[in-house]
Request: fold
Amino acid sequence: MSNLGGDQAANPLDELAGEDPPALDAIEAAAAIEARVDDDNSYGRIGRPFDRRSSFWVGMATTFGVATAAISLWVVYASRQILLLLILSLFIAAGLEPLVDWLCRRGLPRGVAVFIVVAVALAAFAGILDLVIPVIVKQVTQLINALPSYAKQLSDRSTFLGRLNSRYHIESSLRNYLNGGGSVATGVLGVGKAVLSALASTVIVVVVSIYLLVDMPRFKRTLFSLSPRSRRARVVLIGEEIFDKVGGYVLGNVFISVITGIGTWAWCMALGIPYPLLLAVLVAIFDLIPLVGSTIAGAIVAAVGLTVSITVAAATIGFYVAYRLVEDYLISPRIMRRTVAVPGLVTVIATLIGGTLLGIIGALIAIPVAAGVSLLVAQLATPRLERS
Reply:
């Protein structure tokens, strides 16, 4: 073995530098010796840290940091649609996690528990579609067939709809909105693209949600491992509490939406409002959006009630105002009491901010995010403020 400085042995890689060309196995063996590979360090021991006070290191670190931040911001902006779908998938997986965890505590393997939950969820969704779609198609067909009579009423100033049209120009506004300033072919093409995009987004959300649900324990471990070792136990406890809040909120919100849809169907059937099942499904979907969802859906039902009479429309408005109070002060607190304990003002602010930043998805996830932030503030920021 050659010597450096007369008495210091050269490293194995330096010895191979003279070979032409050195064998690959020899290079790997020499690198393993130099890196001091053993049973505890498969890729060798970590070398001495760089001198971070040197001007070269400071310059390179600053340049690399600025470049990384700029590229990261560009990647987030360019992939914002996919990121929203991934956030929604995580939201759904966290919502189904309590059911999977409940089955696992009963002795079932996680894979079997996930299969049961996903199969039941998909079967229930398919069953609802099988029951609802034929009726919705029938009622939508009836609505389309009734459009000429509605258009005739809009043109007749002796009718209620005609008087509204003459005052607020409803017909011209609808035509401009539907045409969108383009041709019919352009509108049809836009609708087709929107339908395909919605189907693709649905498939992505379903697939990613299933993968996250299957791998949720590993996902949590990876997420928690990013915290410092000295604080990891506390991070795990707080993180699990946040996941529990998200899961409880999702299940509770779906249950409340089902109640709202059933109430809408019963109200429409009792007052003879047309398209009761179609409106019930629409209201149930809108009610998933906190605060404003059921209000917007109630306005739509009241507008359909105008086709029956002004009295029915006014009664429908009163029904949804009363139901909103019952939901906010009776139904929602009982369901959400053990999961998401967020003050009303925080709920309003979080929903408005989430809806402004991320649209419907932002409004959906705003309340559990606010609950998580409130927990972090209570556990991390408040004690520090009290000690200061």
Remarks:
- Residues 110-155 form the longest helix (46 residues).
- The beta strands are 3-4, 8-9.
